[in-house]
Design goal:
By secondary structure, the protein is of the alpha/beta class. The chain has 13 helices and eight strands.
């Protein structure tokens, strides 16, 4: 019997819902010197918590999950900041009053039977990648609920990505249409082009079209760098960039093997009437 684990990229969901709830009050009489008034903050937070719980309920019903988990980022800087201090430089921080509301949102999730995973030092992306990889290796079905393109590299017959806000799955066809390559080549693509969202550098002068053409012709960055059949203009841009490419690829690659210390049965949804034999799937902890 197959399990279906739904992994919620929690801050991706919460921050997008918060932005929708905040929008009517921004640049209005409710906003003072760039900040929402205290009364407005309370209203927006109340609306956000209510909408987040409703969204999770909708997701669980739509996905018919047997197991679910809301995964949050660590409060501390993750390993990527140590490797590259400019990682996510300039990204707008979460408002402190929203951060203080997260425990209440987590309590609301728990009322639906969904626990929260918060690591002391790992990003949610790596935790989700580890869970998805472990499940897929055992032939179990995983759906990651997020709009973060970084998860697209995990796509496989057992791992699916669902965009809740646009009510669609981000699949191989989506990747082909948007990037003109296969999901397994995405990390190499972004290592060449860079990832502006996370401020990860790429090779100067190489854009998405050039990178996709190179990957479609040669298959991988390794093959590209070893090839003697690259156009001279492109080869000049690649020359001397091996170290930069290696760093970017390391930053972009999601960890698949973080020790988690819990069993799949710990995140089973109580309303599920049919459950797989957990001891056969995971005889030990994740």
């Amino acid at each position: 019997m197959s399990a279906h684990l739904v992994l919620i990229d929690a801050l991706n969901l919460i921050r997008r819902i918060y932005a929708v709830q905040e929008r009517p009050f921004v640049q209005s009489k409710h906003q003072l010197d760039g900040e929402l008034s205290t009364k407005t903050q309370q209203q927006v937070l109340f609306n956000t918590q209510k909408a987040c719980v409703k969204a999770l309920d909708n997701i669980l019903k739509h996905q018919q999950a047997s197991h679910a988990l809301a995964v949050f980022d660590s409060q501390k800087p993750c390993w990527r900041y140590k490797l590259y201090p400019d990682y996510k430089k300039g990204r707008k921080k979460m408002p402190s009053y929203l951060a203080e509301q997260l425990p209440n949102i987590q309590d609301g999730f728990l009322e639906l039977g969904v626990d929260s995973l918060i690591s002391e030092e790992d990003e949610a992306d790596d935790l989700i990648a580890t869970l998805a990889t472990k499940m897929a290796l055992h032939g179990q079905h995983v759906t990651i609920v997020s709009t973060d393109k970084g998860f697209l590299s995990l796509l496989s017959p057992h791992v699916h990505i669902y965009d809740y806000f646009n009510r669609r799955y981000l699949d191989d066809e989506y990747v082909k249409e948007k990037f003109d390559i296969k999901p397994a080549q995405l990390i190499d693509l972004w290592s060449l082009t860079g990832d502006n969202t996370n401020k990860i550098p790429g090779v100067a002068g190489i854009g998405q079209i050039t990178a996709a053409n190179l990957l479609n012709e040669h298959g991988s960055i390794t093959a590209i760098l070893q090839s003697g059949n690259i156009k001279s203009a492109v080869q000049e841009k690649l020359n001397g960039c091996e170290e930069q490419i290696t760093l970017s690829k390391k930053l972009l690659t999601l960890k698949p093997n973080i020790p988690l210390g819990f069993n799949l049965k710990d995140i089973r949804l109580e309303q599920s009437t049919e459950q797989p034999n957990i001891t056969q799937i995971y005889p030990q902890t994740l």
